[in-house]
Amino acid sequence: xxxxxxxxxxxxxxxxxxxxxxxxxxxxxxxxxxxxxxxxxxxxxxxxxxxxxxxxxxxxxxxxxxxxxxxxxxxxxxxxxxxxxxxxxxxxxxxxxxxxxxxxxxxxxxxxxxxxxxxxxxxxxxxxxxxxxxxxxxxxxxxxxxxxxxxxxxxxxxxxxxxxxxxxxxxxxxxxxxxxxxxxxxxxxxxxxxxxxxxxxxxxxxxxxxxxxxxxxxxxxxxxxxxxxxxxxxxxxxxxxxxxxxxxxxxxxxxxxxxxxxxxxxxxxxxxxxxxxxxxxxxxxxxxxxxxxxxxxxxxxxxxxxxxxxxxxxxxxxxxxxxxxxxxxxxxxxxxxx
Amino acid sequence: xxxxxxxxxxxxxxxxxxxxxxxxxxxxxxxxxxxxxxxxxxxxxxxxxxxxxxxxxxxxxxxxxxxxxxxxxxxxxxxxxxxxxxxxxxxxxxxxxxxxxxxxxxxxxxxxxxxxxxxxxxxxxxxxxxxxxxxxxxxxxxxxxxxxxxxxxxxxxxxxxxxxxxxxxxxxxxxxxxxxxxxxxxxxxxxxxxxxxxxxxxxxxxxxxxxxxxxxxxxxxxxxxxxxxxxxxxxxxxxxxxxxxxxxxxxx
Lengths: 338, 252
Description:
The complex is a heterodimer. By secondary structure, chain A is mostly helical. Chain A has helices at about 1-35, 40-65, 75-90, 95-115, 120-140, 145, 165-190, 195-205, 205-210, 215-240, 245-250, 250-265, 270-290, 295-310, 315-325, 330-335; strands at about 150-155, 245. By secondary structure, chain B is of the alpha/beta class. At the A-B interface, helix 8 and helix 9 of A face helix 2, helix 3 and helix 4 of B.
């Protein structure tokens, strides 16, 4: 028995060591690639990093906790506008605005989370969508602070700019750091008490409450943590884009992309959203280059196929396949058919 | 032993619209006691458990745990006060292994470990205890009906309760499968755990209960020793109808 335990702990240690090494190699590779990639490619890879961070953030509330937030972009937009406003009006440095934007999103999530997280399923999804749409209108109607529909520009050079523009390389590193941060948060949550509490809530909220999980507090915390990351990503996006408009920053498409990446990759896992973000961005870029007129059509087809064949997401499909030793897609459809 | 009952209800009631699902239920359980709760379908047994554990808020009356008023408290606060329950319609965490199902309860118990690896190790003993040893790595969906009921039992035990409310954990089990559950309830009693057993299986109730509470149409019909209760004409009447009860009397 004790040898078994020892073996297990060695395996656990080895696993952590391997993961650590893998992260180091990836980070070293990413930094190495930075000097070889031209500007356009750097921006494209930065976008991938951005979506890795966003999909991990969505996964905390939508994947682990099972509350599909269709208005997640509200935190992206609010984080972004917060940064733009404090950098322009109050001459904050970006490095101060960045964590504050995350905090701003997190506090907002705590406030709206109390009533919204009482709703379940579709009702929660629609309510969050409403919050995002509503917030866009609020931003449009506060032109003194937000620039309204005409947009707002962040100072990036000269005496008014506390932080100079980071450039393609700088933003590449910034988004890489955000992606790593989001992945680290996701990994910790997937393995600790809090994360198991969220899963329990997802799988049966009554039973979770019955074993002593404060479901209200856990859900609000998950929502708020998810909003914190999303807000920081929004802030970085705004600084990268310099001039922003409400339509772009509260675009439903950003939420939809996050959700698709998580769902196709495998919600409730850390690797799933990562693969989803990488896969979807690469396929989308490839199709854009090679099928200029048809790329959205083909991408849509691939997504529909993926959702029909493996509704539980790639990673969950592989895990179940390994457990049941059955990789048949037909059996999979049958199992998940509603 | 303390003189304050571990659980006491005073005039506890719940109305759903025009229906009094439970009304004016007053009783108490002392530490270490096993209380059986019986009653025909729709008598309000599950609603009663839900009222005690906070899953449904009462419309009248009080719930006292260790003499402290816990009326209308959230389920997690009741759980942290040392009260655990099972659900009549089992509620396993389907996306986790059996062992992880137990580990969640261990980690969220107020004095429990916060570390997953420790909780997973501790889960083994509880699985062993309910007869699920060796099933730790299986998913709830792969378990038999009997094993699913055992998992429900184990999930409640994971929170180290002082008071355990069992809502028909033996329903649908074969006689040979019931015996180990009864053995476990007796073992819990020996450890000082108080158990409230809601059950349809009369033999099980008679075998373990110190005292039996009979509910009918949401009200307390009577309480007393198990044999005394089962022989009572009022109890026979609510279960089998008044004509049967009369005939029984005539025969006697």
